[in-house]
Amino acid sequence: MSQQEAALVTGGSAGIGRATCEALLAQGRTVVNLDHKKPDWGHERLVSFQADLTQEAQTQAVAREITSAYAVTALVNNAGATRPGTIDTASMADLDYVVGLHFKASMILIQAALPALRASGRGRIVNVSSRAALGKPERIVYSATKAGMIGLTRTLAMELGGDGITVNAVAPGPIATELFRQSNPEGAPQTRRIIDSIVVKRLGTADDVARATLFFLSPDNGFVTGQVLYVCGGTTLGVAPV
Question: For the domain with range 4-174+205-231, which CATH number is right: 3.40.50.410, 3.40.630.30, 3.40.50.720, 1.20.1050.10?
Answer without folding.
Answer: 3.40.50.720
